[in-house]
Structure formats: C-alpha cells, structure tokens
C-alpha cells in the first residue's frame, strides 16, 4: 500500500514539473498557449531562427503594414505577404500579441516582475507588441495617445532591462 502512495506522489510531482514550464510561458502570452492547444497546425511559431529570418522580419516591419477596423494586421506588399514566413508573422501579430490597452498593460506588468531572461519567442513578441503599440499611439488622440505612449515606454523599459539582464548573465571569455 505504501508503494502506491509513493508512486502516486512521484506521478504528481512529475506531472506538476512538466506542467509548470508551460504555465510560466503562457503567463506572458496566454493566447499563444490557448491557440496551440486548440489546433494541430503550427500556431505558435518563432519568427527568428536564423539571420535570414531576422532580415525577413525587418523587411515585414519596413513594408507598409495595415491595421483594419477589427485590428487585424496585414502586410500590404502582396509578394512579401505570400511568403511562408509572412503566414507565421500574421499568426503572431493577429493571434498572439495583445491588442487592447488593458492586455498590453497586463503584459508590461508581467514583464516588470519577470525573474529571468526572456525566451526568444517572448522577446520577439514583446518587440512586435511594442511596434503595434507605437502604431496605435500614432493613430490615437489625447488620452488614448498618452495611454498607448506610456505602454510603449513600459515595453521599451522591459526589453532594455531584459537585454541588460541577459548581458550580465553571459560568462566572460
């Protein structure tokens, strides 16, 4: 009987240990976790896996982006929009990053308390959220403009802190 209890405790510990990292990741971008569970397709992409990917992301950001009334982001350039990486970009921009000022503020608060270096997907999603926030600030007026601008500054500070934190964690050679 005692071995059943021990086995149950080990199983509980193992299950808890495998669930915890997902929860921590979902904490910053919870929609990514929800989408991944509900689809068998690649819904939780990482945009930057190589230097070419970084260049491509830069091209997407330099291309003319459009945000429609339902807050969907699209690349106006048809040739760029037809690329496979553009589909991943679309997924991250439209299904993962926060779009409301409340969600962006929630992300900023979570980032300010984040105890470790961001994963690369969380870093790039935060950068894309910052780009979206800057765009919304530029299109807004008065109080809304101030709210979006404050959120932009908060995200900038979080990314700056992450870069400084990750640099201080690297060993010197």
Automatic annotation (TrEMBL):
Keyword Cell membrane carried by entry: no
Write the record's keywords in alphabetical order, separated by commas.
Signal
InterPro entries, alphabetically? FAM180
Query: Species lineage, top-down?
Result: Eukaryota, Metazoa, Chordata, Craniata, Vertebrata
Would you tell me the protein name for this molecule? Family with sequence similarity 180 member A
Q: Which domain of life is it from?
A: Eukaryota
Q: Name one Pfam family in it.
A: FAM180
Q: Which residues form the signal peptide?
A: 1-17
């Amino acid at each position: 009987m005692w071995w059943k209890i021990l086995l149950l405790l080990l199983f509980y510990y193992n299950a808890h240990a495998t669930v915890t990292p997902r929860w921590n990741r979902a904490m910053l971008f919870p929609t990514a976790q929800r989408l991944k569970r509900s689809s068998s397709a690649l819904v939780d992409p990482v945009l930057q896996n190589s230097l070419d990917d970084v260049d491509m992301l830069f091209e997407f950001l330099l291309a003319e982006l459009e945000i429609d009334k339902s807050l969907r982001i699209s690349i106006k350039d048809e040739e760029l929009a037809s690329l496979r990486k553009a589909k991943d970009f679309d997924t991250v921009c439209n299904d993962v990053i926060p779009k409301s000022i409340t969600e962006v503020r929630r992300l900023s608060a979570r980032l300010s308390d984040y105890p470790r270096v961001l994963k690369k997907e969380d870093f790039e999603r935060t950068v894309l959220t910052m780009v979206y926030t800057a765009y919304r600030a530029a299109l807004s007026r008065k109080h809304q403009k101030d709210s979006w601008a404050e959120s932009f500054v908060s995200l900038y500070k979080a990314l700056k802190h992450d870069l400084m934190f990750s640099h201080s964690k690297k060993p010197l050679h």
